[in-house]
Amino acid sequence: MSRQRAVRAPTTASLPNNLRIPSTSPSLAKTFGKLSRKAAIDLAVQWLENDSLPSVCPLLVRDQSETAPDQDTSPYPLAHTVEEVREVYEELRDRRGGKREVIDRILEGDWRHGITLLQLAMIDVRYIEDHPAGQKWTALRLVSDGETGRESHATASLPRLHVSTFLQNLQREVSPLVKAHYFASRLKSLPLTVVRIFVTDSPYQYPRHSADTFTDISRIIYLAFPDSCPFIYTSISSSTATKLTHALTTDTRTLRRIVRDAIPRALSRPHERFTLQATSLTVKSLRTLLSLRGPGRTNHSNGAFSIFAEGVVEGSPLDPRLSTTVSPEEYRINGDAETADPEEKEDQGLKADAESPKRHNIHSERSSFDPRESKRRRLMVCSRFGISGTPVSSASLDRLDVRLLDPPIESEDGTGSTNDQHTLSLTFSGSDVIFGLRKMTELGIVNADFMPSWMTGEEGVSFTTVRQKKRTENTSSSS
Amino acid sequence: MDMTTDPNASLELLDSEISAIQAEIKNLRNRHRLLSSSLLSSSYVRDCIQSHPSIETDGDVSPLVVSAGKHRESNYHRIAFSATTFPFKDPSPHADAPHLLGVRIDVCSWDGKFEKPYYVLLHRENTEDRRLRVHRHTIPAFISIERLEQKYLPSPLPELDGEHEASKPWKNRKQDLPALVRHLRRELAAWHLRRAAIEWLRQRLGFFDEGEEDQESLTSRAVTHVARQTGIVSLVPVTLEARYARLEWGDGRVGRFKISNSGLVERAVVIGDHGRDMHTEAAMVSGDRRIETILERLSQNDLSASRDLTSAPGTKSEPIPPRESGSKDLT
């Protein structure tokens, strides 16, 4: 094990994949505990695949003779070949049972010699894959530096991500200050490449940290690279840049900031430099990010304009039906969505079915006293919100922060010069803020006629400053 | 037991029956709507209605016929010109310029279906020269509409200092919306053509997406012949943009080529176990360089290569060495 090494010298190399954390540490059990039974078995089988690396191999009988012979303490006998171990997990997969037995088997049985950093990284990425809304993500835009005057190709603005080159560059940038472990993986369910970076300030390749350090969430940085668009998503909140005064300390916040600053430099090439720009969007769901800052058509048409993005405003030119007589859902089903995967669509379709009776109930309750007003309001809501805030839209903000710089009551205009003093901060939070606002408008709590457009999700941001009823573009993120 | 389950079962049966009937009604309604609007927009029926004696005397036609006629006309325009404009009103009560100009771009894909239209909505600035700006759009992010806007719809920089004004040519440049739309449409059409070309090559090689497996055996046999000749086992577009395509051969070589907007193979790289395979690279960018004929060039190249290199060391059956998954190459 790493702790027995006699000579330790500071290096600039990254942390090795095969750095083992003792299986007995309670933090590991916690890390495994967040996986489902199926995910744990899948990962174990993945580690046991033929082309796997030595750093994920299980402990076998032949390894046991080299290390300490403490075979008696473990209830799980060691296997002779990897094939045998795989059979055990395949059998566990077929059987019903709790996830505890799988995790115990992994930690106390086949990987009792320790879980490596690579395995830890795979666990975390698998967790992200299973819970695409379990982590807060901030979208950043990659902007080409200093090419505004130059005429260039319309599609030349995208850095082509080659993950191993990117990681090499990143390592070169941060290695004097940060020791890190890198892991990159392509998600199966979403068109994203996720990079997980674990940072530490030790100069040694085998640092003597406690096991808790290796599972410390504040030391882990996630980057997600969507395909074909100039955005990256990161788990680092953009506010870390404010604490510049303590640049010499080596707490996790500084380490994260160093890595964050190195990202655009690692993506740049000679004569093609990039900088990162905030886009005022921090959400928990990767699907929302892909929809609002992704490669598809929904980036710049939300709220009232979402009817264009989803192609529900009219059909193909070969369709003889009038667009007013065709329901939006029908256009969605017929239209060939190039980015949305069919599975997702199906899910949303089901959700829509489940949602609709509830909504009808509410309508029938409210409309009992004035049906005409209710109908007018419903039409107005459709015109203001388009399809945002309905289950068919894949964007869902879990939080919306608004700073209003206008005076709350406009009639008291006597103190016009001190307008800037009026600041009102509003925070909406919930599982889907725009859905909630839409509902409130449908019920007549919010007046759709006078509602400002930031309430309809039109801007596609989670943080905004509003002056004179309009979003002030302090960041030049929207065109 | 029977007493409690029976009513439940019959209720379930009734429920499923009702939902089946409702679905049937919905289908029939849709069909009715489709047929009636098809009839209303067909020339023959329209002529009959127009020449009906009651209409010739009164002069008022049913609004249904009028709107169907309008719809028909706009469809004709969309099919014929592919870029059309329409007015749109921003419903926001605080919009500076609520009257928007919509540009709709229809792209027809290679199987004769139209893709979802792409939209650009423009507004006029509230300055005296009323310049156009892009307000909202549905253009995919890899086609940078910001750059196109900068190029074709330039607006004067806000800080005006007298001496530099004359020396900067873009300050006096006119806005050119038709050029913007032309360029944009070309990029969109080229993207769809690139995707279509790769898909066509995949079909010729016998690679079908899931769900398309039930192809006729005759075509698949002919297709595998091409695949066998070239030895290609995989051909996929790289990312959504489909600017690059990735090739994989049965002998472990991997390659990548770049497709230009006009459908030429611009550049190609092939790497095998023994480094770059210049021979194949040259074959890919030789001849007329069209992407459609790349398989022919590759199969000819393979024939000539196998004639030349019969004595070359036989490394063809070696599998690709497993990669370190910590730094996975995800191309």
From TrEMBL, chain A:
Protein name: CHL4 family chromosome segregation protein
Pfam families listed in its UniProt record: CENP-N
Stretches the record annotates as Disordered: 319-374
GO BP, sorted A to Z: CENP-A containing chromatin assembly; chromosome segregation
Signal peptide per UniProt: none
Biased composition (Basic and acidic residues): 347-373
UniProtKB/TrEMBL annotation, chain B:
Residue spans of biased composition, Polar residues class: 302-314
Subcellular location: Chromosome, Centromere; Nucleus
Entries under InterPro entries matching the protein: CENP-O
Main location, first listed in the record: nucleus
Superkingdom to which the source organism belongs: Eukaryota
Gene Ontology, cellular component aspect: Mis6-Sim4 complex; nucleus
Record-given protein name: Cenp-O kinetochore centromere component
